[in-house]
Amino acid sequence: MGNMKGKPMEFLIDIQQNQNNPKGLEALYQFSRNEQTENAFKTALFACFDESPDNLLYEAWYYRLSQNEQETEKMDKGTNWLVAIPLAILTGLIVWLLSDNDLVVLDRIPILALFFAPIAAIAIMAYLVVSGKREKMRSIWIGLGLLAFPVYVLLIMPIQRDFYKEPYLNMAMLHIPLVAWIGIGWSVLGRQSDQKSRFAFIIKSFEVLVTAGLFVIAGGIFSAIAFGMFMALGVDIPEWVQRLIFAGGAGVIPVIAVASVYNPLLEPLAQTFGQGVSQLMPILIRLLLPSTLVVLLIYIALIPFNFRAPIENRDVLIVNNGMLFAIMGLLLGATPLQEEDIVQKLRLWTQRGIIAVASLAVLISLYALTAILFRTITGSLTINRTIVIGWNIANIGILVTLLYQQFRNGRERWVGSLQKTFMAGSAIYLIWALFVILVIPLLFR
Question: What is the C-alpha separation between 374 and 401, in angstroms, rounded?
Answer without folding.
Answer: 25
